[in-house]
Amino acid sequence: MSGPRLLFLMNEALFFTTHRMPVALAAQAAGFEVHVAAPFAADPVEVIRGCGFHYHVMPLKRGGRSLWGEARLLARCFRLIRLIKPDLVHHVAMKPVIFGGLASRLMGVGAVVHAVTGLGFLFIRDDWLARIIRALIMPLYRFALGHPNARVIFQNPDDLKMFLDRGLVREETTVMIKGCGVDMTIFAPGETPGEPIVVMFPARILGDKGVHEFVQAARALKDAGSEARFVLVGRRDPSNPTDVAEATIRAWEAEDLVEWWGFHSDMPDVLRQAHIVCMPSYREGLPRGLIEAAACGLPIVTADVPGCREVVRQGESGLLVPVRDGPATAEAIGKLLADSGLRRSMGRAARQLALDEFTVEAFVADTMATYEAVLPRRERP
Questions:
Q1: pLDDT tier at 108 (50, 70, 90 boundaries)?
Q2: What are the CB-based long-range contacts (under 8 Å, 24+) for 241-244?
Q3: What is the domain count for the chain?
Q4: Burial code of 273-293, b = ≥16 C-beta within 10 A, e = fewer?
Q5: Residue 189 lies in a domain
Q6: Which of 222, 253, 257 is nearest to 337 (CA)?
Q7: Does 350 lie in the same domain as 368?
Q8: CA torsion 222→227→233→239, rounded to 10°?
Q9: How do beta strands 88-92 and 5-9 pair?
Q10: Do both 313 and 222 map to the same domain?
Q11: What is the mean pLDDT of residues 77-105?
């Protein structure tokens, strides 16, 4: 007899392999039959299947707003639950939480876990369209999160407070798990690279990730005579409204402001080429890129916003700057460029913070404990 069936509903196959794979492997080792539903992407799906998980395609467009597309997504969630008959469904990110949560509740799935991984541009922006969409999705969130046997995982206290204040979730169902954790044996400090100093932006090339402030800081510091290299490490994301066009990135390169290294799967090696990491994002759940940087013993410059501030101890492991403030970002980076001793001391503090709060072992243990809290005893592996 097979073990209980665990279904992950994901907004991206790559996001599953980078952020949820350790939990899925632990669940499989514990006896779960693991299913993963996500939009198709060849390389991540090959990894998913190679681990012995069952893969199911999802017609999900992260930035899509087509009523027909969203209806297809909801219908697919219903069909998957009817087909798989999962004992536990783990929804990760906004659309899986809302649409998968609706289907799971209406189909009577016995146990549900939701992961609120960040609130995205809808909660960063305050224009009329964002306000309208927020008003429409709030009742959907409330219903989806109201499953009678659920846990809702939050990554930072600000997001948790907002959901509680708006009555979207019951406090007794909430769980705080900070970030997804990283393997501290893989993400570890290496030899300090030589000159020139490399300042690295390790994220998707999005306005909401603070890339414009990063480039503004690079321009100011280079105009002041800095010889540092400013490097973008990440892919574009055309489904996001704040995606930066390739022509714009190439223009920055042509001005000798930044280098664009593109997406890399070998981030431990890439981060060891950096001296400073800077991602002045506008809001996050809890960014794995900053956890990885801290684990590699790198000083961090980031914005003082939900999610980002959880990874930095101000003045100890890095520097927090006001959000959307390019000059302040330049000043903070300049302070680290000028002081190698400060970079080393902050790097050591960042590594210790990562060891104390962001290990993958703790993340897996906390998530498995959350599964156990909602699964009936007879269905536990």
A1: very high
A2: 241/63, 241/121, 242/121, 242/206, 242/207, 242/208, 242/209, 243/204, 243/205, 243/206, 243/207, 244/205, 244/206, 244/207, 244/211, 244/212
A3: 2
A4: ebbbbbbbbbbbbbbbbbbbb
A5: no
A6: 222
A7: no
A8: 10
A9: parallel
A10: yes
A11: 97
